[in-house]
């Protein structure tokens, strides 16, 4: 460990004591039930809040990935040798391994990901919820009997892929770790998961705590490292039977292509450019509050962020003025501060991308009515990637900022005149992840929702997500689903079994009847 940021060093030391872990776990991987140092180049983590080096660790590398795949394969066979009911009991027991560690997990996520501590505490609760939900599915994955027109008994059962490879992003590493692990192991698979190299450690801790709680050694393996080395080794491994990726469309295409070369299927949960539609008859207090949460929560670093606000023209001025005032009042500050509502962007590259898009939009004619630059009044040590909540108007649909994902606290507001134009503007994107409709007209609400090309649509609300409901998108937002029963089914294959029940088997091609 080579931390250069003394304040962060002290926080990490406190967390280390709370987890009762050895130092080595913080710059390692979790493979076959033990921490394993990486074997590749050195990666330096940077504190998003202070722009100072936090600590160094080594890229896992291809050899360690193969060890992890082999461990997952062995553990998966032992896992499937258990009854389905026993697997459910062990999943429930495993998640209890997190008990007493919730605050330490939240603090670790806050330090490394730069997220407000209040948000991280909520996400720890979601981790438990995901495992409890899918534990209940372990003994309820029923097959079916098909009434085939022969003398056979034909039944279908759902079988696991074997070992799946998962890659998760930096915006919500703890949440997406559990989001992917729980259905995969409930379906009977072993897992090798690679978090973003920018946010590696909460996934390691979760895997360790789950094993302490009762999961078999090696069923869940975490490999930390860079995409071109560790990521490429994972997607190219012959022992991986399915790939699951959460991240950008560009990287998603590379993952899908790598799988396709080996005829390995994938689930892609990618970006979004979600439209938040507000009709003039909506309850504007609720709509304004919802629009804030839709884009400024998590500093806009959310795939479902409501980054396009479409407001009926007669309400446009009032809604945007109220939003601008509200944005100016959002408490932006250090992630560990209990009062902070919005923290920094996670990394320098993302900060440069977001600020460049704002500058280009202004050059193209857009007007900033809130934010647009570094917020005033930050603590002296907050030298990291902070951007004030930003609202842009005078935006046209042709502008890059209206078409491409920003992934930051930047809202573009555009007016529309009628329902047809609202739907047209909402669907004028390559993305299709989420959207919302605000109106007091129930018929209009359902009518518009039914026309939106989006995997999730909210009516008079935003960002309600549950592990019980399917989540995913269309187009550049990816394919496949990540939660609910649909998410569980992504991790199994249907196997058709034919049992001959006739006293004399009827076999095709004349065999079995004294011919041949």
Automatic annotation (TrEMBL):
One of its GO terms (molecular function) is oxidoreductase activity, acting on the aldehyde or oxo group of donors, NAD or NADP as acceptor. The keyword Oxidoreductase applies. Keywords: Oxidoreductase. Transmembrane segments: none annotated. The keyword Lyase does not apply. This is Aldehyde dehydrogenase family protein. Residues 39-497 form the Aldehyde dehydrogenase domain. InterPro entries: Ald_DH/histidinol_DH (IPR016161), Ald_DH_C (IPR016163), Ald_DH_CS_CYS (IPR016160), Ald_DH_CS_GLU (IPR029510), Ald_DH_N (IPR016162), Aldehyde_DH_dom (IPR015590). Pfam families: Aldedh (PF00171). Belongs to the aldehyde dehydrogenase family. The active site is at 269.
């Amino acid at each position: 460990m080579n931390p250069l940021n003394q304040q962060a060093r002290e926080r990490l030391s406190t967390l280390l004591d709370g987890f009762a872990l050895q130092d080595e776990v913080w710059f390692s991987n979790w493979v076959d039930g033990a921490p394993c140092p990486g074997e590749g180049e050195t990666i330096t983590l940077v504190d998003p809040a202070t722009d100072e080096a936090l600590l160094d660790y080594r890229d896992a590398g291809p050899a360690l990935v193969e060890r992890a795949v082999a461990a997952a394969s062995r553990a998966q066979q032992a896992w499937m040798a258990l009854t389905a009911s026993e697997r459910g009991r062990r999943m429930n027991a495993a998640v209890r391994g997190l008990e007493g560690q919730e605050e330490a997990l939240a603090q670790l996520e806050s330090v490394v990901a730069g997220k407000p501590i209040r948000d991280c505490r909520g996400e720890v609760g979601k981790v438990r919820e995901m495992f409890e939900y899918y534990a209940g599915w372990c003994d309820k994955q029923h097959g079916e009997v098909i009434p085939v027109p022969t003398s056979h008994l034909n039944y279908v059962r759902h079988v696991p892929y074997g070992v799946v490879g998962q890659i998760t992003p930096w915006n919500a590493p703890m949440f997406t770790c559990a989001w992917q692990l729980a259905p995969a192991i409930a379906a009977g698979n072993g897992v090798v998961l690679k978090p973003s190299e920018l946010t590696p450690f909460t996934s390691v801790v979760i895997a360790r705590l789950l094993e302490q709680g009762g999961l078999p050694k090696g069923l869940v393996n975490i490999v930390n490292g860079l995409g071109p080395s560790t990521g490429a080794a994972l997607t190219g491994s012959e022992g991986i039977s399915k790939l699951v990726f959460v991240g950008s469309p560009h990287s998603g295409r590379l993952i899908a292509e790598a799988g396709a070369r080996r005829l390995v299927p994938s689930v892609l949960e990618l970006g979004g450019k979600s439209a938040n539609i507000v009709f003039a008859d909506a309850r504007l207090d609720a709509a304004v509050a919802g629009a804030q949460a839709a884009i400024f929560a998590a500093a806009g670093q959310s795939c479902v962020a409501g980054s396009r606000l479409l407001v009926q023209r007669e309400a446009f001025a009032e809604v945007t003025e109220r939003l601008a005032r509200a944005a100016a009042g959002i408490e932006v500050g250090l992630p560990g501060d209990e009062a902070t509502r919005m923290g920094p962007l996670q990394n320098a590259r993302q900060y440069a991308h977001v600020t460049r898009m704002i500058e280009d939009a202004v050059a193209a004619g857009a007007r900033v009515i809130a934010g647009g630059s570094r917020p005033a009044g930050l603590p002296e040590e907050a030298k990291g990637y902070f951007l004030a909540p930003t609202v842009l108007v005078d935006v046209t649909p042709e502008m890059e900022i209206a078409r491409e994902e920003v992934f930051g606290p930047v809202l573009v507001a555009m007016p529309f005149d009628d329902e047809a134009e609202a739907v047209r503007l909402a669907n004028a994107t390559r993305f299709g992840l989420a959207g919302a409709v605000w109106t007091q007209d129930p018929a209009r609400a359902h009518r518009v929702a039914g026309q939106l090309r989006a995997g999730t649509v909210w009516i008079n609300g935003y960002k309600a997500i549950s592990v019980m409901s399917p989540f995913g998108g269309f187009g550049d937002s990816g394919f496949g689903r990540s939660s609910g029963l649909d998410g569980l089914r992504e991790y199994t294959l249907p196997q058709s079994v034919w049992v001959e029940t006739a006293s004399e088997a009827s076999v095709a091609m004349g065999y079995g009847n004294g011919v041949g």
